[in-house]
Each structure stands twice: as structure tokens, then as C-alpha cells.
Amino acid sequence: MAPFQAADCLVVKGMDRALSGPCCPPFAGSPAAEQLQDILGEDDEAPNPTLFTEMDTLQHDGDQMEWKESARWIKFEEKVEEGGERWSKPHVATLSLHSLFELRTCLQTGTVLLDLDSGSLPQIIDDVIEKQIEDGLLRPELRERVSYVLLRKHRHQTTKPIHRSLADIGKSVSSPAGRSLARSPPAGPSLHRSTEDLRVQPRISYGHLCHVQSRSMNDIPRTQNPDQVRKNKFMKKIPKDSEASNVLVGEVDFLDQPFIAFVRLIQSAMLGGVTEVPVPTRFLFILLGPSGRAKSYNEIGRAIATLMVDDLFSDVAYKARNREDLIAGIDEFLDEVIVLPPGEWDPNIRIEPPKKVPSADKRKSVFSLTELGQMNGSVAGGGAAAGGGPGGGSGGGGVGGGSSTDDREMPAKHEIGEELIWTGRCFGGLCLDVKRKLPWFLSDFYDGFHIQSISAILFIYLGCITNAITFGGLLGDATDNYQGVMESFLGTAMAGFLFCLFSGQPLIILSSTGPILIFEKLLFDFSKGNGLDYMEFRLWIGLHSAIQCLVLVASDASFIIKYITRFTEEGFSTLISFIFIYDAIKKMISAFKYYPINMDFKPDAITTYKCECVAPDTANITGFNASALLPPNTNTSLYNPLNLTALDWSLLSKKECLNYGGRLLGNSCQFIPDLALMSFILFFGTYSMTLTLKKFKFSRYFPTKIRALVADFSIVFSILLFCGIDACFGLETPKLHVPSVIKPTRADRGWFVAPFGKNPWWVYPASILPALLVTILIFMDQQITAVIVNRKENKLRKAAGYHLDLFWVGILMALCSFMGLPWYVAATVISIAHIDSLKMETETSAPGEQPQFLGVREQRVTGTIVFILTGISVFLAPILKYIPMPVLYGVFLYMGVASLNGIQFWERCKLFLMPAKHQPDHAFLRHVPLRRIHLFTLVQILCLAVLWILKSTVAAIIFPVMILGLIIVRRLLDLVFSQHDLAWIDNILPEKEKKETNKKKKRRKGAHEDSDKEEKDPPAGVTHSDSSFSDSEPDRSSSRSSKTFKPKKNIPEGSHQYELLKHAEATLGSGNLRQAVMLPEGEDLNEWIAVNTVDFFNQINMLYGTITEFCTEASCSVMSAGPRYEYHWADGTNIKKPIKCSAPKYIDYLMTWVQDQLDDETLFPSKIGVPFPKNFMSVAKTILKRLFRVYAHIYHQHFDSVMQLQEEAHLNTSFKHFIFFVQEFNLIDRRELAPLQELIEKLGSKDR
Q: Do 353 and 91 contact (CB within 8 A), yes or no?
């Protein structure tokens, strides 16, 4: 079972339940929010199931009554339209504030049954009525009448199909499944009645009523019918393992006060046809009231239904312990609710669901903004004031779609990942990359078997062969065909195939690049001018550069990439995108030069346009050797000068005329009509059609799957369409030319370059200098592209491999140098296009909810097949020759434009052309003054212009050095912009992020200085034990720990907590741990727990410090407690979503986090008279729960090592002290203790 992705969760393998444990930071604001933190923080479980909520209203038809579905919610509200034949569009539920207050009153005065153990609707109704009568809320004589109403049939609203196929009708009639559905109420596409109408009169005895109703309910299926689920299209919108919440509201004439009940079942149950879809019900809300207030009851029902699909309130509903917890959930909802003035908004207007909704985490926690504010600027003041001081402010709300970014939330930190941590060991980073990638290697292949991969393969393949042909042709011109199209094809196929097969990031596509092309031209000219052999000289440069790349890999030099921020990434990415766009347009313009258009063409003068072939002069004919132009084995006697004079020159084609030395005469000879315009149509049509089909996914036409399929294959469809158009017109547009024979472009070279013999000896060492330039170029180009591909916005779950990527680039450089093939490095635009073609979104989403981006299909299949196809393209030449080059230029243009999407630099550039009031509501516009944004953008534009100029001149050889220059420019920007501004429009450099951490370390300096002395002594409570849990004192000399894992936390001498610590140590010396953990008489419970929490932190700190050499990344790649329990880390602030990490990394995160909590004077006050915060107990419980996980890991994974070190006595007594303490005050849930439950029971029984 894959680990459950919940916040800092414990995954129990083989079980359906996962225990999670986020320690939510303190709630800010109302008492309700603080109470919610206590509710949600005490019992940390896996995320609760998604709730499908259905509201049924009681309908009267004379004496008959039925429950009719009126609305439903998964995420947004859908109403049954007044016509009763269709559902409304999903929309944001707009509630009246009064209905929320009435709902609050309902829960205060009505019946609340939590964890009711009932499995059928009659039983639930019976329990609710009994409770109402018991509490005096319902008169006993109304029991039967209320029960009769609540057990009426339910009629659901579903969409009727326009027609059904004969095959479907036949299946429903003849198949056993169809017959069973006829007996049981289907959830199919029809208006149906799903609960048996008992036709029981109200005066019938209640016992007989229950008996008959129960018998009838037994006939209704209580489990999901697979065929029923398959046929119900709406079920596809409901997430797997969802549960239902049913809301029943109505009015009756026999009640004089409302009948209100809120029920939560202890286990969800299928209640027959109560719900329109076969989803088990977990919650039931009932509101029956006196006649005359139907609209009010309906609004209250909508209010509770809307609350039940609210992420935060649904958590409260699942975890509520009593009525007050539910009230607190409503109060918190009211704290966050937005009120619209009645005179400025029409409540009948349905609000479209937003593209992005804020996460409930923002309501659960408050993120500290002081860290950045204490740097080179403030969070909300000075020159960085949010909203905009002089110069334009935030740009207003404008007409943008509205950003869901909270004004109080700081942007995410610049996080590259653990792959770029400097290890300090030779090839340390490479070894870790291999260890990280090896577990994913097999999945990299089977994850690629998806229909989406076919589209990606065709798209990238066409991009690669176009790139290979383009650069091959340019290389041939630059190197006198020592490297041409054939070498480019073979090199692309070989290098790309090996890289995708073995690299750290197979989504990266290798290709030749412009700077390498310029270097090759300069190198060829230098070699030719100095009488050196170009291929041999190039071989040695390649070998030296490969060795230098391996040296960079060995020294973990890739770690400097963490200093590349958005400023450098976007500058480099934008430059490459502009190059693609510029080259595509340039090639299209060149078509107009090859096939010129008569700009002076006049339709009326069409009769005057002519072109004819005229025979050359006789003297020219005599000297013209016509046979030289003929193919072999042709009878040349026919083509002597005499025969040429006898030719009818006016009948010759243009090509024949020029071949035989004739002249073209006429005013239309220099023009070639149609080809240029047709080429432009193919070029722009391919680009615009691809763009349109990509956006088709978000249109309103056709089902979701068809739209997704069209969008995924948009490029393929566009290419096929315009290839077909070109074939229909039959014009001789320029076509793709692929070599048909595998042989070197030049006949005087082979496939292997000899390293010696053609150049002087001094060339071999001298080639180190030009190799250094190549290495810088390769390193920067490769690693910047890798950073762009691995950026967190792509949500890659498999580890990156910067060192492994560079290693293979170096190996391939040496191989290509020996074979005389071009050098290859990561191609930014094609790699981004590869990522874009493999993006995944949720296959099912709630009505009205935008599909959520899930990540990228990470695999090696697409890249591997692309380069296999590139290699065999020689054999596909007869097919590929039908693809017009303008179509491929259109693909190039699309790749360049598409790679600009999502680049903040491009969004900021567009702001120059927009008035402030019309600017989009970007988050950075809310927090950084507009003039500062423009200044930052102008700096980027200036840098980009310099790079473009260098790229376009001979000075392009220093292009890689200028990329390094971008990093220097970014560092200089720290002198101009505040850290607050840079946090929003760029990223903060790593050393700036550590600034606040260093301040904390200075405050702990005293602890560091004293650690050596303290670590020699065992922590309190460990000095009295042996390996069999006795209370005798062990030999202290057996303790081998020379230092703790983290600095110890000291309690100031003279404080009351210090006195409590001494008391604890004294009571531990008595040998009675049960007595030692008891609260001393007259002492404050919070203070006692705080003192012991600090003590346990120091004990575990010491114990783990003894086994750190055994607990490594290799030995403990996952933080676990045996084979069934696995822990993921999340702290709610720095790491908001759980991550799977190694045990050393997890414990480092944990101990650092605990240290920060203990150092926080607002949580753990050390001064006398300072009160503990309201949420102290919750925080302390979470600390102790997480510290227990270290014990569990040590016992399960390292107890043998502990015994070898003879430290088991200290471990056993420390754990015994810990477990007695948490049991004494019920500080850890029993389920969290499951990994060591057997040991805990043994400890308890032995103590008794």
C-alpha cells in the first residue's frame, strides 16, 4: 500500500487507516478558532472522506407526502431548476446570514447524536425520536406521525438521456443485472422513486409500522452495485471512498415546534435509496417544522449542506466530541464569512465557481511573517508596503479574475531540494543521486504506458528531427560538412537515447544549441587559419571538457545551482524562447525570398505577364558542355552544340532552360506565385490551430474525455491537418529532407576520430583552455534547464539527479568527440515542451470545480522512443518527405510561445502596457509598489538584451560567462531591493534565508559551549536502569556518546521550572517511576508537562546521538517503525505537505522543530508569572507524540546496535519513564503507540 499523503502522517501498511499528526501553529483570532485547533489537533487522523451532500424537501400532494431531491453538493451547489427537469449549473452557494444564525440555534436546541450505532434508516429514526421524547422535545403521541413522515419515499432528480441505444435497452431487459435493477431502485439516468412507499396510515400502530418498514428496507440493496456505479455518470464526479450527508427539511401541520436532529453514524451505512447515488451515509440532518416557514427551513437546510462540504467544518463534524464543538465550527465559519450588501448584489445571480479556491490550511494556521521582515526590509512597512505607496501601488483589483492568495501569506521559499546539498565527499552527490533514482527505475518504464505518452512522443519527435535538421545544416555550413545533417541525426539519437535511459531526470531532452554552434564555427575557422586538423583538435577539447565535467561531478559543484533564482531562470528561459520564436519567423520570412511575390501585380494586366526561355548566343552554345549536366548512361550525341540550336527553347521548363544555358525573358520570370503565401498559411495555421486545440480542453463543447484527448493530441492533429491541406493543393512547398543512407557527410572522414598524428603535441594540453569555455557553457546550460524542469511548480514526485545528469553529459561528450558527432546538452524549450505534454490533471472533479494539476507523468519511455525514432528516421525518409517545412516551423513557433506561459517576467513585461486599474490581480502587485516592479523588470530586460546581442555576434563564445554574470547581477540587486520585495518578485538567496536561523543559533550559543560537558552525563531518568527494565543503576562508563544529536535545551537556574526539574530528578532516584511522573501537590499541570517535555527532548537527543552512525540515508531510507508503520514529515509552515524522507532527515526535521517550539517563549515561558497559552497542551501533545516516533524507530531498526553499544539500559529506562508520563496525563492517543504496544504492555505488567 502506498503511503498515505497526509500531513506528517503515520502510514500503517496493509490497513485502511492512517494516523496523521500535524502540529498546527497557534490559531489566531476568535475563541472559536482556538477551540477548533483543540478539536482538530487532539485526534490526528487521515484526511476525512469527501462528503456528497443531498438535500431533500418534503412535498405534499393532498394526503400523500414524499421527499423530493431539491439540491446537491460535492464542492459547489446544484439546484433542481423550477421546471423540475434539469440541474442548474454548479455555483457558489450564497447563504443568508440569518439562516446561519438560525442553524446555530437549531444545533443548540435540537437533538445531536454523535457516533450513533445504527445501520438502517428506520433504526436511526427510532433512535432520534426516542432521544427527542427523552429530552422533552417531542410529545410521545407524535411519535408515529413523525416516523411516518420521515420514512416516506425519496424521489431523486437525475438527467434524462435524449435517447438510448437498442443495445442498452436489450441489455437492461435481458441481463440478470438489468432484472435486479428493476427490482431495486437504480441510480440511473431517470426520474425515479427509490424507497418503497409503505402506504401505512398514520393511525396504524407504531410497532407494526416499524416492522413493515424494516422488512421493506431489507429489500433495498445496502452495498454499491458495480453495474449501477458504472452506468451512473454522476458517480464519476464523486471521489472514491466518499460518504454522504443527507439533509431532510420540510413543514408539517401537526408540530407546534421544530423537530431538529443532527446525527453522525459511528460507521457509514447504505440507507437504501435515501441518496441518489450509491454512497454510504455518515451524517443526517433533519428539520421538520410547523407550517408557514418553508422558505426559512429551506435556507437552514442549504446552510447546513454548504457547511458539510466546507473542508474545515467537515473535519469538525467528523471529530466533534459534543454539541459545543459543532457550534464552534459554525462560529469559525461565521468568522470567515463575507457579507454582500443587499442593495449592491442580487442574490438570484449565481456566482461562477472560481478557478482556484483557497486552502482550508489558511484557516487552520497562521504563518509567521516576521522572518522576512527582520531581514533587509519589513513585511508590511517602509518601501515595501503592501497595497502601494508612491508609484502605482498594488494596481488595484482591476478586472482580473481575483487572486486567491491571502494578503498575509508570504510566497514560498526558494527551495531546490536535497539533491543539491554539498556532501563534502568525492562523488558523494552522484552516489546519493543513484540511490535516490534506483528505486524509481522500474516505475520509470511502466509509468509511461499511457495514451498521453503517444501524443508526447509524436510532438517531441517532430521537434527533435526539425532541430536536428536545422542545426545539422548550419553545422555543415560552419564546418565544411565535417559535421552535417547525418551526424546531427545519429548524435541526437545516440546521446538522447542513452541520456533518457540512465540520467537522473529523463524528462530533459538533449539537443545541439546555438552557443555550441557558434563555438564550432569559431573553432573550425581557427583550425583552418592555423593549419590544424579540426576534428583532432575538437576531439581533445571534448575530452578535456568531459574530464572537467566529471571533476565538477566529483566535487559536488552542482550545489551552486541553488543560487540560481527566478531572475536567472526566467532570463535564460525567455532568451531561449525568443530564439525559437525568432528562428521560426526568420525561416518563414526566408521563404518569401526564395519564392518572391510580385508586389506590383495588377489583375487587369494579367494578359501582359509572361515568361519564356530564350536560346543563348551561338558563341555561348559552342562553349557550353551540355552533357556535363546529364545523368550517366545518356546518349550525349544528342546534346552537341548543333542539336542545341535545333531545340524549341520555348517548350523547355525553367530548370531545363537554365541547365542548357538558356535565358528567362519576361516580366514574371522572377516571381513564384502561391508558394510563399501557401507556406505562410501552413506556418501560421499550424501554430494557431495547435493553440486553439490546446485551449479546447476548457471549452463547453463535448464531454470531458473528448476535450482532453483533443488537447493532448493538438499538435499531432494540427500537423496532420495541414499536411493534408498541403497535399490537396499539390503545390511544391519546401518539404522535410532526411538523409536516406547512414554514412558521414564528407567522404574523407569516418565514424572514428584518431586522437594522435595530425596536430603538434602542444595542441593536446593547450586545448584545456577552450575546453574550459565549453565546460562552463555545458554546465550552465544543463543545470539551469534542470532547475527549470525540476521546479516545484511541476510537482515532480521522483527525485532529481543534477550530479547524475552532468555525469552522463560528460560521458556523452567524450563519446561524441571520438565519433565526430555534435556535442549535446539540455534543450530548454524542448524540455519544457516535453513537460507540458506530460502534465496530468484530475480525471474526475466535482461539478464546477476546475481540474487540479496533479504533476507530470515522470517516466523514461517517451524520451527513449523519441530518440529511437530519430535514429530510424533514415528509414522513414519516404514518409517524412511529405511533411512541409513551414508546418514544422509552426511547431517551433508554438514551442517558443508556449514556454513563455507561466513566466512571471513575461507577465511583468505586459504591465508596462496596462493602466493600473486594468492590471491583473497578481499577488506581487498587492505587496510590491508598481515602480519597484517596473525597475526590477527593466533590469531583467537589459540583461536579456545584452545576452541577445552577445548571442548574435562573434562574442557569443563568452555567452556562458555572461550566464554566470546573471547570478552576479542578482546578488547586486540585494543592495537595491528589500528582501520583502525580492520575496514576491524573485526568490531570496539561501544565505538570506538563513539569516534568521543564525540569529537563533547565536541565542543558543551557550548551549553549544556547554554541550561537551553535559553530554558526558546521562539525562535525568536514565541513571537508574538495566537491560531488563529494573531500576538498578547501570555502569555510566558504558555510555559511549560524546555528543548529543542537537544541542541540549537548558532550563535557567533559579527558575521555578528548574526547581521542578530537580524535584523530578530526586523522585526518579527513588526507583518508583509511577510516583515520579505524578503531578507534585500544588503545582501547575502545564508547567509540570513543560518541564518534562524539555527533559524528554534531552533524553531522546542523547539516545539518538549514540546511534547516528548506524542511522544513515542508506540504512534507513524511510522513517519507519517496523514494516507496517511509516512516518512522513510536515510541520505546517516550512513543509506544508507531507514528504517521504529518510529517518535521519525526518529526525533532523523533528528535533529542529521541537527545539524551535521549546525556544518559543510564547509557548514555553520560562519567566515566573508568564501564563501558558491556551493551545499549550495541544502543542505539547504533538511534541511528545513525535518524540515517541524516535523511540519506535530506535527499537525497531537499531536495537541490536544499542545492545552492541551496551546502551540498552539507558534506552529502556528512558522509554519507561516517557511512557508512564504520557499515560499518566493521557498525552498520546493509544493508536499512536501501536508500534510499541507489546513492549508498553510488558512494561506496565512488570511495574505492577
A: yes
